[in-house]
Specification:
Length: 678
């Protein structure tokens, strides 16, 4: 189970020089842009706007983005750096490039060459579209949906994961899917804006049929929509899908067939290369949905499945086809759903494509230029400082028994830390890239990755592996291996600035490190032991207290209403909210430890604790379009940035003291209503 965030921290002498002697910081004089604040807002009325209000008033979301803010700025920087790497490869004579560099260059150039794609027309996709058009049976449909090379979404998807009960073994995991819009609520929720979106989706599909030369587009689009509506109605809600107790359902392949007999399972797996004998174990996620989805599969005419696969194929491959298809796809998925008026530049999208297909080959060049070994060493030390603070904090908890504390400490001691980039780079020698065959390149990359994963199904897990590439602006906790992972690209301002004040780095990267550690102790991560096994290590009494705390926290987040009529889903976002609240508490403790008993300096009139919390507010600086915000609220396990800045701080006693927050302030919580986990 992998949970992402996006961030990091440090220790006193390690992260900064003395104030006044330090080199220039990225933001302001000590790492925070005070001009971005709106001091007319009381911190207790809206801490997000207090920290970021002047910025928020004037911030303009670029036409090719769904949001702007701290994370988006770093993503843009990472894109720019990846494009610079691609340009440097283009500048070298081709015969002087390594075999791996040639593949990077050819894939990038194949994507940015829109003229060549336009000249080919839809011809490059015609063999696949013809195969879809000639499917005759549901077995044919299942076989094509299960083809890893095509990588099409399906009502039932399968992949290679890690066995929750045995983190040393890989598993074949199955889960629900198959929707063309972001989430089941887009089909089922009674909402005026979503009703408009549904109509726009049908129109979009009809247009795609017409562009592909297929008649009766409106009729076909309605049939596909009706099919997806049935799928959505059968699927589990997001809050249930993240409950480990509900989604870990191991069974034999024979038992799977008996549970949902209408699905042609042998056909679905026929092109996977997996040996699916009767006793092969699989792990099913949304168990009660599978019989319903299998019945839908059996009851739907083959011609409807052909239309479903055609329009899903055109969406999946639109960016590799003539510009007219790419533009039509963007008009719905970029403009209608997100609110963007422009596409990302082709070169930026090419960087993301190469990062997705050959992320460690590109990452190798990225870290050589932008993440020196001393930065990695410093980051490792930062993480260890947070782990020490966490261990010390566990000893002080008055709600946890000694027996559970011992297990929690054991988990802390066994955390694996991955910083910047992997110790061993992935080998791409088996991947073939052709400069003049972009769709073929995409499908060969799909096949390469599937073969890499599937061939090791009966081998021990490779715990040196990374789930993100170095240029990724994010971080994650993988409970199955009890590890926390921070790619190189997140180790930058405003999250981490080696020239910034210590309080700023602890409130930024420190809170992010604390967040990822805390995922090991959130409502789901806490179900995994120190070895990464799905195994309850809590006493019944402690677990009951912990669950009462998370329930109270969930109710707080349920009350937030970022868009009229759409609240934060406290149960769905619980893991991230727990990690935010616990992470900021631990980071502040680590900051206080770093002071070594000395008072924190006052800088520009701000105390150390105030600077810490302002930094936390700054990393969640963000502004989203309504469409993007709606999508996040309905389909993303993270609360929106404004609620992340407010929701975590208002549960911290030290925040009340730092900013003199009192009863009557909008977000004031009485002491007995504040949720303290760690």
């Amino acid at each position: 189970m992998r949970r992402t965030l996006v961030a990091l921290l440090g220790a006193g002498a390690v992260i900064t020089a003395a104030y006044g002697d330090a080199p220039k910081t990225e933001y302001g004089t000590w790492g925070f842009d005070t001009a971005a604040m709106d001091k007319t807002v009381k911190p207790g009325d809206d801490f997000f706007l207090y920290a970021n209000g002047n910025w928020y008033k004037t911030a303009q979301i670029p036409p090719d983005r769904a949001s702007t803010g701290s994370f988006q700025n770093l993503r843009i920087l990472s894109e720019k750096r990846m494009q610079e790497i691609a340009a440097s490869l283009d500048a070298k004579p081709y015969d002087q490039l390594s075999a791996e560099e040639k593949k990077l260059r050819d894939l990038y150039d194949a994507y940015v060459d829109q003229t060549a794609l336009d000249a080919k027309g839809i011809g490059a996709a015609k063999p696949d579209l013809d195969r879809i058009a000639h499917l005759k049976t549901r077995e044919d449909v299942a076989a094509m949906l299960g083809d890893p090379r095509l990588n099409l979404d399906s009502p039932i998807n399968f992949g290679i994961g890690i066995n929750d009960k045995n983190p040393n073994a890989y598993s074949i995991n199955l889960g629900q899917g198959g929707l063309g819009m972001p989430d089941r609520d887009y089909y089922l929720r009674d909402d005026a804006e979503l009703a408009k979106t549904r109509d726009a989706y049908k129109t979009h599909m009809a247009d795609m049929f017409k562009m592909a030369g297929i008649a009766d587009g409106e009729k076909r689009a309605q049939a596909v929509y009706d099919l997806e509506h049935k799928i959505a109605d059968a699927e589990w809600a997001n809050a249930d899908r993240r409950d480990e107790d509900k989604v870990y359902n191991p069974m034999t392949y024979a038992e799977l067939k008996a549970m949902a007999p209408q699905m042609p399972w042998d056909a679905l797996f026929s092109r996977s290369g997996l040996k699916m004998d009767a006793n092969r174990q699989v792990i099913v996620a949304e168990k009660s949905a599978f019989p319903k989805l299998a019945a839908i599969f059996a009851d739907t005419p083959v011609e409807t499945w052909r239309d479903y696969m055609t329009v899903h194929y055109l969406h999946t491959y639109a960016a590799y086809l003539p510009k007219s298809f790419d533009d039509a796809d963007f008009a719905f998925y970029g403009t209608t759903l997100q609110g963007n008026s422009q596409q990302l530049p082709r070169s930026a999208r090419a960087a993301h494509l190469v990062d997705g297909a050959m992320g460690e080959a590109l990452g190798k060049l990225y870290v050589a230029k932008y993440f020196p070994p001393e930065a990695k060493a410093k980051a490792v030390e930062l993480v260890h400082n947070l782990l020490k603070a966490y261990e010390a904090d566990i000893q002080t908890l008055d709600w946890m028994s000694p027996a559970t504390k011992a297990k929690a400490e054991e988990k802390i001691h066994k955390f694996t830390i991955k910083i910047g980039y992997p110790d061993h780079w992935r080998d791409y020698s088996a991947l073939t890239v052709k400069r003049d065959d972009l769709i073929g390149d995409i499908q060969r990359a799909n096949e390469f990755e599937w073969n890499r994963q599937s061939r090791r199904i009966d081998q021990p897990t490779d715990k040196t592996e990374w789930g993100m590439s170095p240029p990724t602006v994010n971080a994650y906790n993988n409970s199955q291996w009890n590890e926390i992972v921070f790619p190189a690209a997140i180790m930058q301002p405003p999250f981490f600035d080696p020239n910034a004040d210590d309080a700023v780095n602890y409130g930024g990267i420190g809170a992010v490190i604390g967040h990822e550690i805390s995922h090991g102790f959130d409502d789901q991560g806490s179900k995994f032991d120190s070895d990464g096994s799905f195994n309850n290590w809590w006493t019944p009494e402690d677990l009951k207290v912990f669950q009462s705390k998370t329930t109270a926290l969930g109710k707080q987040y349920d009350s937030y209403e970022p868009l009229p009529g759409i609240h934060v889903n406290g149960a769905f976002t619980m893991g991230e909210n727990v990690a935010d609240n616990a992470g900021i508490a631990i980071a502040l403790k680590a900051y206080h430890i770093s002071l070594q008993g000395k008072p924190a300096p006052v800088l520009d009139g701000f105390t150390g604790d105030q600077r810490f919390y302002l930094s936390f507010g700054q990393i969640w600086r963000g502004k989203l379009r309504d469409g993007a915000l709606r999508s996040q609220l309905l389909s993303n396990e993270h609360s929106p940035p404004m609620q992340r800045a407010i929701g975590a701080t208002r549960n911290q006693n030290e925040w009340y003291a730092a900013f003199d927050v009192k009863p009557g302030d909008k977000y004031y919580l009485a002491p007995d209503q504040r949720v303290h986990l760690w």
